[in-house]
User: Fold these one by one.
Assistant:
Number 1:
Amino acid sequence: MSSTAAAVYSAAAPVYGLILAGGASSRMRRDKAALLYQGKSQLDRAFELASRHVAKVFVSVRGDQKTEPTRAQKPLIVDSVDGEGPIVGIRSALTDYPGVAWLVLACDLPFLSDAALEQLLAERDPSVLATAYVSAYDGLPEPLCAVWEPAAAPALSAYQSAGGHCPRKFLRRHPARLIEPRDRHALDNVNTPEEYATAQGALHSYVHTSPMQLKIQYFALMREQAGRSEETLETSAATPADLFSELNARYAFTLSREQLKVAVNSEFSEWSRPLIAGDAVVFIPPVAGG
Amino acid sequence: MRFRFTEVAIDTQAARRDLLDRGAGGYVSFEGWVRDHNEGQDVTRLEYEAFQALAVKEGERILSEALQRFPIKHAVCIHRVGSLDLSDMAVWVGVSAAHRGEAFDACRYIIDEVKHRVPIWKKEHYRSGDSGWVNCERCAAAPHHSHDHGHNAA
């Protein structure tokens, strides 16, 4: 590796997450950010997903959305540059936090997975303006599931000044790394009530028709009641909550789910987090150290 | 690691050396000991068990929080696992700082947070022959009981 390349690599900007939730949702006729999948809003799902991969995550909003309840609980970046559309959200983040690269995610990608973000971040090229997935359907770059580098800020500003507004066209005309998602459905998005119904059904059948292997470890009272310290289980449980119900039916734990916490892959987790094959799950009874 | 587990007696003299600092004017430590009674029962010994992969992460987070919140120099916490007898040391917290006030405050913060947040469990064995997991057995009978306040001060 040349010293120049090494310098570029070592200078790679830290990546924060930016969830775009400023859209008008005119085709959906309701607020897309608040749509529920498996009991959780799209915005919460996207926010939690990004939070598992980058140190800080913000929600991009228009000035008039700051107090809207789905959004107001989150760290916000309010549009600070003129114009309309997602390009404004991306530019505002790059402007407000110089020197930071942004993992930009639309909040209407219900199929987006941890694996898809891992792949995107692993294949990120900080020497170009952005690293983006290309659509499995039309081969076009997907600017709203992409890592935008700090160097994109002046180019985006110039592009907008020249009358441009489409971040997809921007990516086609500027140096960007385009990569193919291993899961071709990862970027399927949802813009109409019909697509929403289809996506809910697909998520449901996806998680309930594809059994997978999970590893479960047991500690303390849970270990005694399960009669084992660990097991590998073939299950179609979609979430830790589902998995607990399944195991509780088998072992009749005396503690209820409300009394437990749960960890996935050695980190505290929400009960509603989607599980994927190979996840290691631990149910955590009330602690008593000291 | 600043937060760690041991299956043998805690070496406080060695741990104390991790706190030495020329800018420190003193250090405060806390030792949690195995007590012979809890909730009206005579306790004969304890067993500690931990989900170490997560416990070390959470313990390190607590020590980092203490270092951010208080102007202290160093902080260390060591917890026993396995079977302990009466008067054995179950946990040790040490904090060094320029001034004593911050060292006391940070030490208190660390032990309180460790007891509430770190996935460590304690099984008490009683003179009656019974045994029970602290905070778990009574919770099972009273579903609205909070997890978070330990009954059994170390």
Number 2:
Amino acid sequence: MAIVVRVQTADFDAAAELAALRIGKPAVGAIASFVGLVRDHNRVGEREAAAEMRADTRIDAHIDTGIAVCVDARVDTLTLEHYPGMTEHSLERICVDACARWRLIDALVIHRYGTLRPTDQIVLVATSSAHRADAFDACRYVMDYLKTDAPFWKKESGPAGERWVEALASDHEAAARWSPDAAGVDAMKRTA
Amino acid sequence: MRVTILYFASLREAVGIDRESCDLPADIDSTSRLRAWLRARGGAWATALAEGRNVRAAVDRRMTKVDASFADGAEVAFFPPVTGG
């Protein structure tokens, strides 16, 4: 079993990373992965666009996705800052916890920092196991705790200027669902 | 005791520095006491570290919950809630 954590400015090749989790490892029956991307709009914009849809015209509709976005909420660049040393340690600890909880073969986290643009990849979480449930659940667990525990901070820049992204209560709720005393934990802890 | 204090993200911008080394009075030995001690500098420090503000702390690169003590030579960090992923 191996835990690999990389914090870097460079982009990553998700397909190559997933291939490395299976080639030469015939015990692997499942790989679950998550890729987080830079969006061209922020959550505030989605909410405001929904509220203003009726009256205001300063809205750019994403025709293909059906997502309406306030022009002011457009994101041109996203700059990620992190705490070198603590970040790696924190991501490793989250992976160790996931390995203690599920039967994993490998766990991989690659997280970028620096200035990124819409469609750029920010993070890759991949977990492998013999059976799919362990990989699926562990992947989500790692991502949920990464959101609340790993020391990264995002700053958006767009037509309205710069703005530090605020932490969401929903992220803490997502992580809290995995705690042993949370209701419904049995459903999330199901094994393969 | 002597500690290194780091500041990140919006907090770093608010106080204008990303790190400093401080000789602390003997009774400033926990994150909440250190936060109050820094707040007493006034100005941006008082605002950025105000009691109602959601400021997180780490001691020797481990996230702390409410209040955490530290020893001589510690690395203490203050920052806003994290937003990675």
